[in-house]
Amino acid sequence: MILKGIEELKGFLGTSRNIVIVGHRNPDGDAMGATLGLKHYLDKKGHQATVVVPNEYPDFLHWMPGSETTYRFDWQNTQSQKAIVASEIIFLLDFNALHRVGADMQKTLEKYPNDFVMIDHHQQPDDVKYMFSDVTICSTCQMVYQFIEMNNDLNLIDTAIATCLYTGIMTDTGSFRFRSTTSTTHRIIADLIDKGAQNDIIHNKVYDANSYGRLLLLGQALSNLQIFPEHKTAFITLSEAEKNKFDFQKGDTEGVVNYALSLKGIIFAAIFIEDADQKIIKISFRSKGDFSVNQFSRNHFNGGGHDNAAGGKFDGDIETTIKYFKSLLPTYTNELNASYNA
User: Fold this and answer.
1) Do residues 172 and 30 touch, judged by C-beta distance below 8 A?
2) What Å distances lie between residue 51 and 98, 147, 277, 325, CA to CA?
3) Nearest CA to 273 among 290, 256, 293, 298?
4) Mean pLDDT value across the chain
5) Which one of 186, 239, 259, 292 has the fewest beta carbons within 10 angstroms of its own beta carbon?
6) Rg (CA), the chain
7) How far is CA 117 from CA 9, 30, 46, 150, 329, in A?
8) Does residue 340 surpass a pLDDT of 70?
9) Element counts in the chain: helices (H) and strands (E)
């Protein structure tokens, strides 16, 4: 764990401040839960906090309290730039390096004259003045809860804050089933429920709001599933044409890679998704046991994340990407076989 400048930060936040809170590009449940949860908390402390995210986030997260006040840097650039210029400090949540916000927003943040606060659980964070970093914690939303606790303000957590933080913890732990879900996580979840988070309603809004097209896209993804039992590996592909066929919307592929990981005997799973706009193949990796997809992605796919969940990208078409991925597997056979008794 890295705690840097937190006591000094408490002093800085002792008077009312203009604050911007930033999440990573393609925000997920943890990024949106953390940024919105922190915004509600800072507002209650007398600050003026604004959430700015790089681009659109999934429709199944738009119901979250405060979502309607969020600025999108790509779409509401004037408002976003104005908020950033007016701010006295920027919180960076759920990402470890400025490039994770995308090239355009990265250029703006690199020119920012004031200080950053990073609250994040990814490996190898950039160095900023104020930092709360812990790769052992399951989600940034749990870290925001603990940040509030550090300030002796758990009594300020209301229904809106509890709902946002619960959502992020739930989504980043795969509904509390990943190894990073600790007894501390469950105690925090219990407290959030006591403070107003309605777990059944949150689950329904996130997981039971599928469009017809999304379910058909899932069927296509599963029909593309390939298995390599000798390497305890499975992967899924989705082309741009397949996405368009089923009216793809942002967030429609969220969690699909976990179907590959759910197969008996599989400990390493991936999904390769063609992105025609960026001219790349977007990749999500998942694993069980000790096999680090963070290191695998850093070594081969210009990515990273956590030991059991990471992302990456590849410049090329799907066929080239898959050929390269398959060529790597024999190198990792022994490591994969020793990783986990699936």
Assistant:
1) yes
2) 16, 18, 26, 37
3) 256
4) 95
5) 186
6) 20
7) 9, 17, 18, 15, 39
8) no
9) 14, 13
